[in-house]
Design a protein that fits this description.
Length: 291
């Protein structure tokens, strides 16, 4: 079965920008695109006239308008569309189970507002089983990013832990024929704050940065072999992972970050690094779940 990209739309300029980005990505990768709109008849407890048929037609019209726009701009695109009879979050999460990638729109350069209303986008990103791309918009189109810009990926942990994140990043760089910048940030373990002598001992053995560089090279090695055409720039820097990644991604066309799949006392979470990048990166951000 051929992999499919899925984009959620709601009629807003932000979702139309996400649809446009998704269509270009689908053409770039020679993949089909499935456009979805979540709609469920839910009468409001307010004294206004509501009509189910009218609302249903509006849901269909939203999809038809997006289909027409994308078909006109990308005539080679394999496109399908569907109204999902459910509320947005469960509908999108269910669709994401079978998707190669889910694309959503966000607003401007401020905090992530998500899909449709409030925290819907954050809920989907935090719980989706596939990578979710957040696309910022301006005037209903994706924010302009340099087409020659790199794909930037944040690498954390060991080889297995970062494998899925690096796979998504290498595939994106290969599809775009641009370099991949792999960024690993590190900080001193707490022990060095309590024991300055430990830092002196570490310095005698060349410091901690060589260990971090070796860890990044080890994680990249299998993907360099699998994607020999992708030029890789490895960057290791001491500092906050979110700050380091954002500084390296100032001219990127896509940033890829990981999200550890785990439950907390308050439910699923995006993670501090992904949260920072989603809020402050100007380019689209792909959040990849991993264990």
């Amino acid at each position: 079965m051929k992999r499919t990209l899925v984009v959620g739309v709601d009629g807003s300029p932000e979702s139309r920008a996400a649809a446009d980005w998704a269509a270009r990505e689908a053409v770039r990768r020679d993949l089909p695109l499935h456009v979805v709109h979540a709609w469920l008849w839910q009468p409001l407890a307010v004294p206004i006239v509501q009509d189910r048929d009218t609302e249903s037609r509006r849901a269909d019209d939203i999809l038809k308008e997006v289909e027409q726009e994308l078909t006109h701009r990308y005539p080679s695109l394999a496109l399908t569309a569907e109204v999902l009879c459910d509320t947005p979050v469960p509908a999108l999460l269910r669709t994401a189970k079978e998707a190669e990638m889910l694309i959503l729109g966000t607003r401007g350069h401020g905090a992530l507002l998500g899909f449709l209303l409030g925290s819907y986008g954050q809920q989907v990103i935090a719980a989706a089983e596939c990578p979710v791309v957040s696309v910022r918009s301006a005037h209903g189109r994706p924010l302009a990013v340099p087409e020659e810009g790199e794909v930037v990926v944040g690498q954390q942990g060991g080889v297995e832990e970062s494998a899925e994140v690096l796979r998504v990043a290498f595939e994106a760089a290969a599809a775009r024929k641009v370099p991949l910048r792999a960024v690993r940030a590190w900080n001193l373990p707490p022990v060095y704050g309590y024991s300055p002598g430990s830092m002196w001992i570490a310095e005698q053995f060349g410091g901690l940065e060589p260990f971090e560089k070796a860890a990044l090279d080890q994680a990249l090695e299998p993907w360099r072999l699998r994607f020999p055409e992708v030029e890789v720039v490895a960057h290791v820097e001491r500092g906050s992972a979110g700050h380091v990644l954002l500084s390296e991604a100032s001219d990127a066309q896509l940033v890829v970050v990981g999200r550890r799949v785990r439950e907390s006392a308050v439910g699923t979470r995006i993670g501090s690094v992904a949260h920072a990048v989603l809020h402050h990166a100007a380019c689209p951000v792909a959040v990849v779940p991993h264990h």
